[in-house]
Amino acid sequence: MKKHYKFILAGFIMLFHVSLWGQSMIDLRLNELLITNTQDYQDDFGMHSSWFEIFNTGYGTVDIGGCYLSNDPADLKKYTIPRGDILTKIKPRQHLLFWADSKPHRGSFHVNFTLENSEVLILTSSDGSTILDMVRLPSELEPNRSFGRLVDGEGSYGPGSDNTGWAVLSRTSPSTNNHSLDGKSRSEMMKETDPFGWIMAAMAMSVVFLSLVLLYLVFKGTGNIALRWSQKKADAYHKAQAVPLAETSGETFAAIAAALHLYANENEVHDVESTILTIEQVRRNYSPWNSKIQSLRRSPDMKKK
Amino acid sequence: MDQIINNLQQFWEYTGFANVTYQHILMICIGIVFITMAIVKEWEPLLLIPIGFGMIIGNIPLFPGLSVGIYEEGSVLNILYHGVQKGWYPPLIFLGIGAMTDFSSLISNPKLLLIGAAAQFGIFAAYSTSLLLGFEPSAAGAIGIIGGADGPTAIFLSSRLAPDLMGAIAVSAYSYMALVPVIQPPIMRLLTTKKERLIKMKPPRAVSKMEKIIFPIVGLLLTAFIVPSGLPLLGMLFFGNLLKESGVTRRLAETARGPIIDIVTILIGLTVGCSTQADKFLQLDSVLIFGLGAMSFVVATAAGVLFVKLLNLLLKPGNKINPLIGNAGVSAVPDSARVSEVTGLTYDRTNHLLMHAMGPNVAGVIGSAVAAGILLGFLS
Question: Any chain A CB within 8 A of the CB of B379?
């Protein structure tokens, strides 16, 4: 009976982990925040309030509905992000902005606390206890300046986060990247660095060769081991006469196998012609789907008078 | 009366006759040529018949907005085409290829792997030439992969790097794969001497079951760790092979190499054919792609043959490789290996090269998947 409990418990733990990991909540990061807002970004009500941003570092959509936000380490569940709101789904490598205006009745993205006079901002998983990310707010931050990760999603994170990778940013960037790339695709960069494709050709051919040379070396090695092993067995069997397996082709073994097959089935069905070998399948594979009983349409029964 | 005439006029505007252009007729004719080649010459009928018929379907002149055409969102053909666009048909084909491929010849003589690597040179020759002709690097990479002679890989890569050119690239790759028996033999003859063509290779040794089981696992680990972007293709190829070689998943292996590959081949062939809609397909770029495709096949074949000749300089007399198997490094499985066999037999009726040629042939599949992974990694 105890065994059953163990299995049930293990099942629950697995289920819990699957739900947590399946949602990829571990990919979520607090990314940028602004404490005193007098002239910066406005909310839908035209108000200037503190804001913060959550970034999905993963390559799958994450629904943060059911997660918690707080500015109090003693109360991780201070604000519950509502479930069932389609807007709480963060697309891959995208951001979601929250207003810290202590006016939760204004919508899912208005939390019930402010960042002013707060020391910390915490994002907690839907289990209510796993801290996904936290950031210690800077004690002195000029109004309308934001504090954020220099590169989106990069730097320390989790319950022990020490704000590594965070700094006062040169410009605020609510709902957009803190660090923007120069916009050139890899293809464009390749065109600039390698206009004729020769570097690419040399590099790629080297990698192809390297992969296949590695395979060659591995299978040369495993082949030698396999041969030595088989040779050992063969030598033990033929103590008097040595049979070099490395020089014996697969065709020889196939011919011996065919001869043995013919000998063992001397009286079985095979062609009379000496040059043609016929291998027939004797046993038919049974499948219930072949059965007439399983047919969708059955032939009508003819009643005999 | 006016109403009836108006209705008839509208009906006429809906018909193909009212919307037909000479480009449609040309593409339909090409489709018929493909079907004829497949039936009369038996060149790759499993591919050319679906592609050829797809070309006819895709070039029936349509009144725009009927939600029937392959490029119209939500149409049946468009939904089927998703497998090509999103690149999930090619890995399924690779699953089937893995489940039907016997890697024994490669395992017994692993140096044949290097021929498969050398033949990938065609890809990068076409890549460089495409850049010279003014194609963007991502488009050049997609065009270059035609030289890998691997339809599913070409579709997979072009769907990621140059979706607009996918129709032309896929049709070009499959056409040249069908024409392998025509393209390769003259190059093979040109680059080899009579003495070289008569080289008899040592028969492959017997390969144990354990070696066959280790191959897909180690093969996947080594290649995918080097080129993770090739994982969809390499993963499915080696997974299919493990299903075959493990000996305990016969039903799964049979499904992978039977019904799954058949269904996906039908869908991929038909939808690729349909994607050659005249207005999207008949452009100067398509003509250039066909030219570059031919060039890459020629270079790949030549590189394979020349590499064997080079390798022979380093090998002992008893271990020489017949350069006629060099062409099999392009991964048109098993046609290029069959070309080696047929060409070899014309010079010596007792010299069977098929089993030896299968080694570089399957190495070519691995090599082209690795090359595709590299191109994807650098250019996407």
Answer: yes
Bridge partners for A98 per DSSP: A52
Please count the residues of chain A. 305
- B275 in a structural domain: yes
**Contact with chain A for residue B231, Cβ under 8 A:** no
Q: At what angle do helices B231-246 and B354-379 cross, to 10 degrees?
A: 150
Domain, as residue range, for B206: 70-379
Within-domain flag for B8: no
Per-residue pLDDT of chain A (305 residues; tens, 9 = 90+): 455 666 666 665 555 444 444 457 888 999 999 999 888 888 888 888 899 999 999 888 889 999 999 999 999 999 999 988 888 899 988 999 999 999 999 888 999 999 888 889 999 998 888 899 999 998 888 888 999 998 888 888 888 888 888 989 888 888 888 876 656 677 777 788 888 888 888 988 998 898 889 888 988 888 888 888 888 887 787 766 666 666 666 677 778 888 887 777 765 555 555 555 666 666 666 666 666 555 555 566 666 65
Q: CB–CB of A251 and B203 under 8 A?
A: yes
Domain count, chain B: 1
Domains of chain A by residue range: 14-168, 187-262
Quick one: A58 exposed, middle or buried, by C-beta within 10 A (0-12, 13-18, 19+)?
middle
- Give contacts of B124 with chain A, Cβ < 8 Å: 197, 200-201, 204-205
ipTM of this predicted structure: 0.83
B63 belongs to a structural domain: no
Tell me, yes or no, whether B57 lies in a domain.
no
Beta strands at A89-90 and A120-124: parallel, antiparallel or unpaired: unpaired
